[in-house]
Structure formats: structure tokens, C-alpha cells
Amino acid sequence: MSEAYVGLESVKWNNGQVDLLDQRLLPEEVVYLPLTTQKDVWEAIRHLKVRGAPAIGIAAAYGVVIASQQAATTEEWLDAVQQSAQYLATSRPTAVNLFWALDRMKAAADQFIAQGFSLADCKKALEQEAIAIQQQDEQTNRAIGEYALSLFKEDMGVLTHCNAGGLATAKYGTALAPFYIAKERGINLRVYADETRPVLQGARLTAFELQQAGVDVTLICDNMAGMVMSKGWVDAVIVGTDRVAANGDVANKIGTYSVAVLAKAHGIPFYVACPLSTIDLNTPTGAEIPIEERPDEEITEGFGKRTAPKGVKVYNPAFDVTPNEYVTGIITEKGIVTAPYEENLRKLFEQ
Ligand code: MRU
């Protein structure tokens, strides 16, 4: 069967520079921006040109390669790697994949030095490490998609929030991966995509990439999810995440918590799909996950049109935390984890 996925690559490594799909312009325009400095990469992450936890990590890993490629000695090179990892870590606070990818790049660099690599070999090997992060993400998402699809049956209605698709990752996505695999196998699933205020990742990105692949997708406003559930049209919810705490609390795009509460009220299972790199055993509970707050303008004049009075007080958290008791299962590349999360997430890493 031919592959259903026809998505655009969010991050392309092109001979020493990143060609980055500017996701702010989708679905209207497909524009790749050349990023040639670590500052370009930092700004692209901060301003959501690239977004989605795994894609941010991939872009940052290439940012480290870019920042260190002009070094003239191995000492200078290692210093550049460490400095740029520190700098890129300040671009956004919530998605742990960013810090995971940067730590992996730093650890790889230390290892190359310890092994006595020449400067040229250090540079080559670090570039390969970033490429491996991207390639492994694709394989990981395929595995997540297979596990997720095992939970769904022909003609089920599945609601998703934000964009945890190919655009947010190397390929396939996490929460959207099962829809691509279902399409390949001729299994029909009806997807409801929340538009996802205020930046509309659901409308601009999820609806776009699923529609491109021929998946049956219906766009709804966030405040319609309850009604759609009450009509019996939703059999399951699946979302991605930016960080899962050790106790199974889940940080994801603002509005996810409301969807989880609605799902519970309607007796609908609420699944979270993510790679192991999104699970942060060093953060004990959701209360310790740093939640990014974004500029007021995203709410008062999003997409260039003023929709609120000037000077009004605004609160704009980009993420919320869904307590673990609302989570039916966490779908990873190693299988589906259920409660008790504290114990079962730890076991997953010991396997
Ligand atoms: O602010 P964003 O667009 O980066 O938020 C993205 C999300 O919340 C995604 O659901 C999450 O990163 C998982 S992506 C596989």
C-alpha cells in the first residue's frame, strides 16, 4: 500500500545551513527560510516559525552544528558547542525535547573529544548526531503511530488539539501518526481538529496536513468540542505533549486540559502520544513544568487584526497541565503506558 503521508518537511539540513519551513505562513504560503546563524535558529524557535516539541529539538541540534562549524581548534569547538547549547536553551521553556536534544549534542561532543577525534572529525560527527536525531524521530513516530492505531477501529471519531503532526516533528507526527497509517491501510477514521486559539495550530496546520493526505478531517472551534462530544461523534481524544512529568501529568497546548475534562465527563478515553524524549523523569509533577507566557498581541491582534480593546489586561499562557488522572494512556515508541504512571513511566526507561 502506498504511503499516505505527503507532508512538508519542517526542518531540512542543507549543507551547513537549515532550510526551515516558516510555519507562521501556513496554510497560505509555503516558504523555506535559510538559517545560517544560531541567532536565526533561536529566533525561529522563539517566534514559532518552527514549533512542536520534537521539531524544536531538531532545529536546535542543527543550531549547535552551525554555531560550532567555524571553530579553529578542538577547544574552541567544544566551547562553541557548550555556549550555543546554553543560548538555544533560552528560546522556549516548556518543551523538554529542546533540552533533551541540546544535552544529547553536548554529551556527543564531550565523547568525541574524549575519544581524541581531530577537529574535522569532531565537526563531521556532530553533524551526524543532529542528522541522527532527526532520522530517529521519524522511526519513533512510526512506532507511536502503530501503537496508537491499535486503539482505534474503522469509522471511529477522534478529536485532537493543536498540531502534533508531521509539521511538529521529523515526519508523521505523534498524535497524527495513526491517521496516516490508517489511511495507508484503508481504515477510515473521522478526525475532529480543534482550531486551537490563539495561534490556530489546529486550523492552520493540523487541518492542512491531514487534508493534504486525504484524511477525513473536520475543523471545529475549541469551544465546540463539548457539543461534538455530547452528540456522540467522538470515540477517543489523542493529543501530543511538550513534557510529561514523572507522575504522568501532561503539559500540552493551552486548551488541552479543558478537552481532557470534557472527555472524562463524556466517558471518552483521552490519550497522549509522545516519544520517550518528551518524558521528563527529573520533573516530579506538572506543577514544576515551566509554562511559557506569550505576547498579549497573539490574543488582542492575532494575524494583524485587532479584536480586543487597546490596553485590556491579557493572560496568555501557551500551555496547560492535564493532571494524570485524566490520562487514559501515554502512547510511546515502546508501547502504551497506563496508570500508575509514576511506576510505569520509570519502568519504561529501565526496559
Ligand atoms: O506552541 P507550539 O505550537 O510549539 O505547541 C505545540 C504543542 O503543544 C504540541 O502538541 C506538542 O509540542 C507536541 S508536537 C508532537
Q: Main β-sheet: number of strands, strand sense, barrel status?
A: 7 strands, mixed
Strand order of the largest sheet: 6-5-4-7-10-13-14
Mean pLDDT: 98
Strand content: 15-25%
Number of helices: 11
Basic shape = globular
Order of helices and strands: EEEHHHHHEHEHEHEEEHEEHEEEH
Q: What Rg is obtained from the alpha carbons, in whole angstroms?
A: 20 Å
Give the low-pLDDT segments: none
What do you see in this structure?
This protein is an alpha/beta fold. The chain has 11 helices and 14 strands. The chain has helices at residues 38-46, 53-68, 74-88, 96-114, 119-149, 177-184, 201-212, 225-230, 256-265, 297-300, 341-350, and strands at 11-14, 17-21, 32-35, 157-160, 190-194, 216-220, 236-239, 243-245, 250-253, 270-273, 279-280, 319-322, 329-332, 335-337. The strands form 3 sheets. The protein has a 7-stranded mixed sheet, with helices on both faces. α1 runs antiparallel to α2 (53-68), α2 (53-68) runs parallel beside α4 (96-114) and α3 (74-88) packs antiparallel against α4 (96-114). It is globular, with a radius of gyration of 20 Å. The protein starts with 10 loop residues before the first strand and ends with a helix. The relative contact order is 0.12. Bound molecules: 5-S-methyl-1-O-phosphono-5-thio-D-ribulose (MRU). 5-S-methyl-1-O-phosphono-5-thio-D-ribulose binds at residues 51-54, 95, 162, 164, 168-169, 173-174, 201, 240-242, 252-253, 318. This is Methylthioribose-1-phosphate isomerase. Its EC number is 5.3.1.23. Substrate binds at residues 51-53, 92, 201, 252-253. One of its GO terms (biological process) is L-methionine salvage from methylthioadenosine. InterPro entries: IF-2B-related, IF-M1Pi, IF_2B-like_C, Initiation_fac_2B_a/b/d, M1Pi_N, NagB/RpiA_transferase-like.
